[in-house]
Amino acid sequence: MYRWKVSAYAPCSSTCTTGISSSFALCVRYDGTEVEDSYCDSLTRPEPTHEFCTGKECPARWETSGWSECSRTCGEGFQYRTVRCWKMLSPGLDSSVYDSLCLSHDLHKPANRKVCSGQSCGPQWEVSEWSQCSARCGAQGVRSRDVRCSMDLTLCNQTSRPLDRQPCEGPPCDRRWTVSDWGPCSGACGEGRMVRAVMCRSSGGVLMSEEQCDHAFRPLAVYPCGDRDCAPHWVQQEWQQCNASCGRGVRLRQVVCAGLEAGVFKEFPESSCDPEHRPDSSSPCFQRPCSKWFTTTWSQCSKTCGSGVQVREVKCYQGDELVTRGHSCDSALKPEARQSCELQMAPPGVSVAVEDLCQDKPTANCALVLKVKLCSHWYYRKACCQSCRPPRP
User: Fold this and answer.
1) For 131-138, which contacts have Cβ atoms below 8 Å and span 24 or more sequence positions?
2) Structural domains of the chain ordered from first start
3) Contacts of 69 (CB under 8 A, 6+ apart)
4) pLDDT tens track for 144-192
5) Boundaries of each PLAC domain copy (predicted)?
6) Apex CA 23: angle with CA 20 and CA 28, to 5°?
7) Is 383 exposed, middle or buried (0-12, 13-18, 19+ CB in 10 A)?
8) Which residues pair with 324 in a beta bridge?
9) Can you tell me the distance from the alpha carbon of 328 to that of 316, in angstroms, rounded to the nearest whole number?
10) Is residue 185 within 8 Å of 226, Cβ to Cβ?
């Protein structure tokens, strides 16, 4: 004689927080001995029962993100990842906590940086930023940049050499000079000066670089003053910016022969002023040492579809010397070494492997979740996302 016997509830499926405890029907002989299920009537077999059970408090644990791309496109660099202390506080609430909770359990914190090595850094083309367009407003001009080989010039592939010059359009013709009110007079006739600010602005009032306005029409920033009738004398304007962005260059200023008649400004021929006392209209100038940022080409996107990252080398050169320390190049102008990239999603019919998108949580007993068919529950569907994935066709 054989009959079905309901087993006692199994131990809780989770060692911490909430889990599942299940009971199953066993086929036994009249003396209580367990036998094969085939000896009992399958139509009368009781359905298994499941109950939620509570374990002890979950311990803290270290969780790590995936490693970043190598910090260098060639040679030796570094990869980084985020390391955080996590703890399951309740079903569905898995949260990051203070690192001290993991450290108090003597858990060794995983490294957040490691050395990575790519292909050897062979010869590469490196380029500086493009210069400003040489054209006036509304006209065509040329902009340029420096192109150099990271090694001897003969080692770089000349067929892939980046362009160092390209055509460009000048700025829009809505730039105009604007002036402030005159300041007070600084002294007597011949020495007194009134100064005002002269600025280049767009039609919207945005302050622009002076190179974007036509210097031939720049208003005077310095006027003579001191008497209603002031004889002609030399009046020098403010120095313009150095014509070199780095290294040695020349700065210019306008020098006019001017005076006042009945309190009104009047410009006179230069012969009306003493030529021996004419102020200099040019002067040598020196900007910071000629150091420029150079970049290599962007690497391929780190993902074949969706959002990824591209990286490139960014180096500072002072002449032909690579600068590895100090701030020879302007840090405010340093080009980006990383940028996001977006590639087209996989076409219809081509699926991304689910294994790449999720992993079962180690705190969930996913084998039991599958056995008792709890994947319909949102918490276990998330905790066991890999095990609960639908079968592939």
Assistant:
1) 132/209, 132/211, 133/168, 133/169, 133/170, 133/171, 134/168, 135/168, 135/169, 135/170, 136/170, 136/214, 137/170, 137/171, 137/172, 137/173, 137/174, 137/175, 137/212, 137/214, 138/169, 138/170, 138/172, 138/173
2) 2-54 (2.20.100), 61-117 (no CATH), 125-169 (no CATH), 176-286 (no CATH), 291-343 (2.20.100), 351-393 (no CATH)
3) 79, 299, 302, 309, 311
4) 999 998 888 888 888 889 999 999 988 788 888 999 999 999 999 988 9
5) 354-392
6) 160
7) buried
8) none
9) 8
10) yes
Q: Which amino acid is at 369?
A: V
CB atoms within 10 A of CB 343: 14
Nearest Cα neighbor of 136 from 216, 28, 73, 227 is 216
Q: Tokens 């949102």 map to which residue?
A: 378
Q: Which residue shows structure tokens 């590469």?
A: 124
Cα dihedral 316, 321, 324, 325 sign = negative
Residue with tokens 């367009």: 133
**329 vs 312: CA distance, rounded Å:** 18
Residue 349 pLDDT level (bands cut at 50, 70, 90):
very low
